[in-house]
Amino acid sequence: MHEKHLLHADLKAANVLLNDAANWCLGDFGSSVKFGEKIVSCTESWYPGPIMFQPAEPKYDWGLMVVLLAMEIDKANWSALTGASSPAKIQKELLLAQCQRATHTGLKQLLAELLKDAHWV
């Protein structure tokens, strides 16, 4: 998508599809927007920072991918990433701490790369 200058803007588990060979692809492109255009549709509470009405950049998809993977690290307690915020919104410092708890070397490396691509480190 990014090669075509498009932001998905709605990366979440429900939009990552797997086939029988465990190959994945993205679904639900209803929130997609061209780079540079304002983001007007996304799951705002999943992104730890301003995203709505920002010019679309790849860093937002990479950030949403970090959130998705961090939630998978501890599925049963993913809501702890929102802290005491009201309304519930993912908190960046809690998200970064969750990424540090990853135990699989490959996942740690992937998260480190995604955090850089998201401009969070």
Count of domain modules: 1
Task: From the 3D structure, determine the CATH topology.
Answer: Transferase(Phosphotransferase), domain 1
Average pLDDT taken over every residue: 93
Radius of gyration: 14 Å
Query: How many distinct beta strands?
Result: 4
**CATH superfamily grouping:** Transferase(Phosphotransferase) domain 1
Which sequence of strands runs across the widest sheet?
A: 1-4
Assigned CATH architecture? Orthogonal Bundle
- End-to-end distance, in Å? 24 Å
> What portion of the residues fall into strands of 2 or more residues?
5-15%
* SSE arrangement, N to C: EEEEHHH
**Which parts are unreliable, with pLDDT below 50 for 5 consecutive residues or more?**
none
Please give the CATH class.
Mainly Alpha
Number of helices: 3
Can you give a write-up of this model?
- This is Protein kinase domain-containing protein.
- It comes from [Myrmecia] bisecta.
- InterPro entries: Kinase-like_dom_sf, Prot_kinase_dom, Ser/Thr_kinase_AS.
- One of its GO terms (molecular function) is protein kinase activity.
- With 121 residues, this protein is of the alpha+beta class.
- The chain has one domain (2-117): Transferase(Phosphotransferase) domain 1 (Transferase(Phosphotransferase), domain 1).
- The chain is built from three helices and four strands; from the N terminus they run ββββααα.
- The chain has helices spanning 58-73, 92-100, 105-117; strands at residues 6-7, 16-18, 24-26, 33-34.
- It has a two-stranded antiparallel ribbon with strand order 1-4. A two-stranded antiparallel ribbon has the order 2-3.
- The longest helix has 16 residues, at 58-73.
